[in-house]
Amino acid sequence: DQQVKQNSPSLSVQEGRISILNCDYTNSMFDYFLWYKKYPAEGPTFLISISSIKDKNEDGRFTVFLNKSAKHLSLHIVPSQPGDSAVYFCAASASSNYQLIWGAGTKLIIKP
Amino acid sequence: DADVTQTPRNRITKTGKRIMLECSQTKGHDRMYWYRQDPGLGLRLIYYSFDVKDINKGEISDGYSVSRQAQAKFSLSLESAIPNQTALYFCATSGTRKNIQYFGAGTRLSVL
User: Fold this and answer.
1) Which residue from A4, A43, A49 is facing B100, i.e. has the nearest CB?
2) Do A43 and B41 touch (CB under 8 A)?
3) Would you tell me which of A17, A30, B50, B109 could form a disulfide with B54, CB atoms 3.0–4.6 Å apart?
């Protein structure tokens, strides 16, 4: 049973517009959430994270929102740029063991 | 130079062969991890190590073994490779910020 779900395998967005990537989780013990970005032939790289004590974290063009009651988080990229084209993974962990549980990823394509 | 280096980058082997994937890091991190990624799935944890003397099984350890030769080196072995071990394998490390992991570029393994 997948504890972290990214229901959209792919997403296409016009350059300059907002990209919104979504992630749902089922385990209420998760208290830390991360987004990673992956280019082809490279490993995932850390992008942004959020603790369960917050509902929003912002870093430049990237903002992560956490809705604990809905067990849902989202990553907003504004404005979207061609270099943002990549696969985005959502991951979650519990402070009891710090193991990351990963979603299947969403491939973001930014159209010129 | 990469902080987390995996060798080889690509490997083709035959069923029943023993194979070793190697990972070395220059980040000075104590924690190291091995994951596999299959199409349509997120990363799944095979083994992890919190220090040289502490090795733990992850979600999918059957058919795999590991060796932590030093703080900087963590190897993954497939004792007798089988075709369903064909996958992309990633090594990762984490330091004082235990939730944030840093990845190598991956090893693409094909078992024929």
Assistant:
1) A49
2) no
3) B50
| Other C-beta atoms lying within 10 Å of the C-beta of residue A45 | 12
**pLDDT tens-place string over residues B27-39:** 999 999 999 999 8
With the C-alpha atoms ordered B28, B4, B38, B52, is the resulting torsion angle positive or negative? negative
Contact (CB<8Å) B105/A43: yes
Best to test chain A binding among B41, B43, B57 (most A CBs inside 10 Å): B43
Chain A residues with beta carbon closer than 8 angstroms to that of B42: 2, 4, 89, 91, 101-105
Instruction: Tell me the pLDDT tens digit for each residue of A48-78.
Output: 999 999 999 999 999 999 999 999 999 999 9
- pLDDT, mean of residues A8-24: 97
In this predicted model, what pLDDT tens digit does every residue of A81-92 receive, in sequence order?
999 999 999 999
CB contact, 8 Å: B39 with chain A? no
Query: Three-state SS across B48-74?
Result: EEEECCEEEECCCCCCEEEEEEECCEE
C-alpha B54/C-alpha A24 separation (Å) is 32
- B48 close to A (CB below 8 A): yes
Q: Classify burial at A68, counting beta carbons within 10 Å of its beta carbon; exposed 0-12, middle 13-18, buried 19 or more.
A: middle
Please tell me whether residue B75 adopts helix, strand or coil conformation.
strand
Predicted confidence (pLDDT) per residue in B28-80, tens digit? 999 999 999 998 888 999 999 999 999 999 999 999 999 999 999 999 999 99
